[in-house]
Design a protein that fits this description.
Layout: H1 10-20, H2 25-34, E1 36-40, H3 47-51, E2 55-61, E3 63-70, E4 73-81, E5 84-85, H4 88-92, E6 101-104, E7 108-114, H5 115-124, H6 126-152, H7 155-164, H8 168-174, H9 177-184, H10 188-199
Helix pairs in contact: 7-10, 9-10
Length: 202
């Protein structure tokens, strides 16, 4: 699971996983043997092409984003940061209805699980299935809220809701703000203006 250049803190990794499901020593040991480590430099946007689409990606360190291109602009669909799994459907099943790209927004360390190992553990390890049920549940709850905000809220309300999220301060301080504006479906200029108004209590 480790490379010469990167040292994975196993205690930290286990704490990340335990947020989803408290894993046993047996399952944790199996995951450590099955995960491979990849360092992705800031701006690298060929992660899926280089390392394979039919895999599960876990962001151990850094921030990555899923996005699609529209009129030569990157439209952010979701962020994946420290301690989070990437979108499962596009990693595993290679849906072709549209093309999603996966990009590191800063220097990132990813842990990668092959589809074969994922399937094997899913079919043979009760704990692993529960772990990923919780991963999927967490993701679906977040995406459902995102769709509600994007459809029914004004730009200012979307920013307000974003600022209430536990991750907002982290994202604001670690990635360029135009990525956040794209995720919220507004222009960078509007985002900056409304963010300033909200910071002044207007």
């Amino acid at each position: 699971m480790m490379t010469k250049e990167i040292v994975i803190d196993l205690e930290k990794l286990r704490l990340f996983l335990n947020v989803y499901y408290v894993v046993s020593d047996e399952l944790f040991g199996l995951l450590c043997k099955s995960l491979s480590t990849v360092f992705v430099p800031k701006g690298e946007q060929t992660i899926l092409e280089k390392h394979g689409k039919k895999k599960v990606y876990f962001v151990y360190e850094g921030v990555c984003a899923y996005y699609y291109n529209k009129k030569e602009k990157e439209c952010v669909v979701d962020f994946v940061k420290d301690g989070e799994f990437a979108i499962l459907s596009h990693c595993l099943f290679q849906h072709k209805s549209f093309e999603l790209y996966f990009k590191a927004l800063n220097d990132s360390v990813l842990l990668v699980l092959s589809y074969d190992d994922f399937s094997s553990m899913w079919n043979t390890h009760y704990e692993f299935t529960h772990l990923f049920y919780n991963v999927i549940e967490t993701y679906l709850a977040r995406i459902e809220l995102y769709h509600y905000h994007s459809r029914y809220c004004t730009a200012k309300e979307r920013i307000s809701y974003f600022l209430e999220e536990p991750d907002s301060s982290f994202l604001l301080s670690h990635i360029p703000r135009y990525y956040i504006a794209s995720y919220l479906g507004i222009t960078p200029e509007t985002f900056s203006s409304l963010l300033g108004q909200l910071s002044k209590g207007k």
